[in-house]
Amino acid sequence: MAISFLASEISDLCLGKPPLRPLPISATIADAVIALKTSGEIYVSVWSSEHSNSVAACNDTGCCRCVGKVCMVDVIVHLCKEENLSHPLDALQSNVLDLVTKVKGQIRHLERNSSLLEAIDCILEGAQNLVIPIHKNARSKIKKNQPPLSPPNLYYTQEFCWLTREDVFRFLLNAIGVFSPIPTFTIEDVNIITKQTLTVHYDDPAITTLPLILQCLLDQTSIAVINKDNRLIGDISPFTLACSDETVAAAIATLSAGDLMAYIDHNGPSDNLVHLVKMRLQERNLTAILDLMDDYYNPSSSSSSCCSSDEEFGTARNGVVGRFYPGRRSEAIVCHPWNTLMAVMVQMIALRVSYAWVVQEDCTLVGIVTSSEILKQFRSVVDVRDN
Fold it and tell me: Could you tell me the residue range of the domain that residue 41 belongs to?
């Protein structure tokens, strides 16, 4: 039964998915920030064609293609570069392709009739987003003097959605019974706890986490913040950073890892933390990014950043960093070695993460379990059948 389920078409996962809103490769980073804040999405897709401003439109030659994606984490890391901290507005006018991760296979195009097994294999090979065509129809007649397309007198458009690990996870959970008894195994029994993790100490400068942030964004994991006894205090999650805004770059440049956790908390930073960041920016003479912070924390000030108005983004600058998403949180997501695969899956889906920290009862860090490792367990039913 599990084999036949994995052969189902991924079009079943696309039901209700909204079409992607493309960002052309000629766009600036400031354009990407606007797109992120107006769309309400974590990521914005970057496309090699500019046929449409509302949907990714392709003609029958297939010239339109998603070349990557951008999230607020990419923007924040970009602004954290020393030269960009001094001139943040200039940095925001750079081309958006400067932020697109040059990792082959991170974005994969698949057809609607591709199988769920193909989608899982792509994810296990490193794909984070699968681009799927959702419909294709004739939209408008050809304009006068416009070169004919095939078929004649029609202009065809193609809209796309994309699928993530979370989508595949949720689909698997809805039919978890077909994989019995795998879901009842503990994560320790199936040996999927990764002992090597990305960690920083609570008092370490937050700026030292930048390479780790890029790594965990690529791996879709997180950075554990620990104390001297190797106990988990919290984490610095790319998802939480992705729900923030570009001014978090100032916090990363001036705070410790522990203070950064508090700064990006879903309740927003305390007045004391904001004051501390501003004071340290003044000490380093980083007045440009200090002005950028003032635009967010002083509602009466006029914006000099890429954000032209509060209404433009549908949010008010009320002292809370970033935007609210279901699952945005401040606590680290933890589980125990004796938890079952299904229990960890439910936790990941409920909290919209692709990992969970594995700890002992006293919060001593054991390792991390990822959605990829769990997917491998479900994928293994095919390997067992083949052998």
Answer: 2-163
Q: Is residue 26 part of a domain?
A: yes
Global pTM value: 0.83
- Residue 39 within a domain: yes
Q: How many domains does the chain have?
A: 1
Q: 7 lies in a domain?
A: yes
Whether residue 168 contacts residue 119, with contact meaning beta carbons closer than 8 Å, is answered with yes
CATH number for the domain spanning 65: value is 3.10.580.10
Domain membership of residue 227 (yes or no) is: no
Tens-place pLDDT, residues 182-192? 999 999 999 99
The 8-class DSSP code of residue 14 comes to G
Q: What SS3 string covers 187-214?
A: CCCCCCCECCCCEEECCCEHHHHHHHHH
Which residues are bridge partners to 335 per DSSP?
358
- pLDDT bin (cut points 50, 70, 90) of residue 252 is very high
The CA distance from 180 to 45, in Å, is 37
**If phi over 0 gives left and psi between -120 and 50 gives alpha, with beta otherwise, what is residue 316?**
beta
Give 88-119 pLDDT, tens digit per residue: 999 999 999 999 987 888 999 999 999 999 99
